[in-house]
Design a protein that fits this description.
Layout: H1 2-28, H2 34-61, H3 70-76, H4 88-115, H5 119-142
Helix pairs in contact: 1-2, 1-3, 1-4, 4-5
C-alpha cells in the first residue's frame, strides 16, 4: 500500500500546483484567443480542483495521509510553478506538457492500485486519464 499512498500523494501535490498554475494563466492570458483560452483555463482549473479533492479524499478512505501544505506540495510535485513570464502560446504548451506528465505518472499510480486490488482507486485514475488524454489532444490541435 505504501507505493500506492506515495503515488497518490504525489498527484495530490501535482494537482494543487497545477490548479494554481492554471488559475495564474487564466488571469494573465492575452492575445487574439484571450476569450476562448480564458474560459478554457477556468474549466480546467475547476476540473483539477475537483480531482485534487477526490484524490486526497481517496487517500484518506484507504488509510493514507495526503499532504496538505504548500511547502509539501512544492517539495513533492513534479509539476513546476508558473514563472509569471509566459506568453500565451507558452502557457498552452506548459499546460499540455503538464497533462502529459500527469498521464505518465497516473499510469504508474494505476499500476500501484491494481497491484493491491484497489479497483475504486483504479477507476478514479482511469477516468482521470481519459479526461487528461483528451485535453492533450485538444491542446496539441490548438498549437498547430
Amino acid at each position: 500500500m505504501e507505493k500506492l499512498y506515495q503515488a497518490l500523494d504525489k498527484q495530490v501535490a501535482n494537482l494543487s500546483v497545477f490548479f494554481t498554475k492554471l488559475h495564474h494563466f487564466h488571469w494573465f492570458v492575452t492575445g487574439p484567443n484571450f476569450y476562448a483560452l480564458h474560459v478554457k483555463f477556468e474549466e480546467m482549473y475547476d476540473e483539477i480542483n475537483e480531482l485534487y479533492d477526490e484524490f486526497a479524499e481517496r487517500m484518506l478512505m484507504i488509510g493514507g495521509t495526503p499532504s496538505s501544505t504548500l511547502k509539501d506540495y512544492l517539495a513533492k510535485a513534479s509539476i513546476q510553478e508558473a514563472t509569471g513570464k509566459e506568453k500565451t502560446e507558452d502557457m498552452v504548451k506548459a499546460i499540455r506538457d503538464d497533462f502529459v506528465l500527469l498521464v505518465k505518472e497516473l499510469k504508474d499510480a494505476l499500476q500501484a492500485a491494481q497491484e493491491v486490488d484497489d479497483e475504486q482507486t483504479a477507476d478514479l485514475i482511469i477516468t482521470t486519464l481519459a479526461s487528461f488524454e483528451k485535453h492533450i489532444w485538444m491542446l496539441n490541435y490548438t498549437l498547430r
